[in-house]
Amino acid sequence: MPLNRSIRWRGLDLDTIEHAHIIATTRDTRIRGAIVGPDFGLFYRLKLDENGHTRTVRIERADGRTLELFADGAGGWSDDRAEPIAALRGCIDVDIWPTPLTNSLPIWRSAWTGQPLRFAMAWIDATDMSVSRAEQVYTRLDDTRFRFQSADFERDITLDGDGLVVDYPGLFTQA
To answer: What angle is formed at CA 68 by the lines to CA 170 and CA 97, rounded to 5 degrees?
Structure first.
């Protein structure tokens, strides 16, 4: 899916504004984004391989805190000291809070048959730089809508033709 596009979202829950740019080629996908909230600011970079698997994640906050993770594309993760992160074993995608962009990652790389698909995600809360594993379920409802479920949270999100979030009820909307 070749793509060279900028996009903006407004965060409704945290009162954020985000600007991201995606460049996807047959070789890889590179994503850069910046999020400004009422009491934080951050910049993130993601690199996906040719199969859409997350390979590198870098988050840098305006207060100087950074987080850098590396993935082998097969579910193995390590930190910036090359120390393995056992809790993330088996995770192919990353989900960064507070951006809706990372909801697109499993959607882009999956074949949708109408059945719900389960994903183990490397979940990063960029507001406090914590990392954990999150089990998530996506169900394609139609050409532009997916149901997202994680633990006791559920939302039906609407996507545009590039598979990017247009409306994430109560949380994000394209600006």
So the answer is: 5
73-126: pLDDT as tens digits: 999 999 999 999 999 999 999 999 999 999 999 999 999 988 999 999 999 999
**33 touches 126 (CB < 8 A):** no
C-alpha dihedral over 172, 118, 88, 13, to 10 degrees?
A: 20
pLDDT band at 140 (very low <50, low <70, confident <90, very high): very high
CA torsion 76-68-103-25 (nearest 10°) is -80
- What percentage of the chain reaches a pLDDT higher than 90? 98
> What residue segments make up the domains of the chain, in order of their start?
3-174
What CA–CA distance (Å, rounded) separates 58 from 69?
7
